[in-house]
Task: structure prediction
Amino acid sequence: MTGLARQKIVAYLAAVFVAGAAAGVAGGYQWGRGAAFRPPPRPRESMMQRITTECQLRPDQVVKIEPIVTDVSQRMHQLQRDQFKQIGALMKECNTRMSEFLDEDQKRLLDEREARHEKWLKEHQGRGPEGRGGPPMGRPPGPPHDDKFPSKP
Result:
């Protein structure tokens, strides 16, 4: 092997190494940046468990506080369900009002979109933290992305 061929091989290997290192740095930066701005994961525990741990409640306090937390928790979940129903009604109203300005094909597409959304809601009803309704913390509810109706113009 000539000296010139050996130098070319070394140069190519060095270029591949530098390119790989640059890609690794860029990828690591992007991954780290995303992880840095995400809240740390919390174990799924009930409100009562968190209050008991964080406030270092005594057993006699737990007995008195638990009914309060249970009552408020149930009322909060009912409020979430009621709001979810109200939002659904508003979305149906929006679709009805918009359909005035759509042609028949567009109305059909809007109806299909609404049917997919309702199907998604039925499939995901009752899911969430600890099996309760609603999305996990930090995740908004909603169906998968819809290509026919992009969110941005």
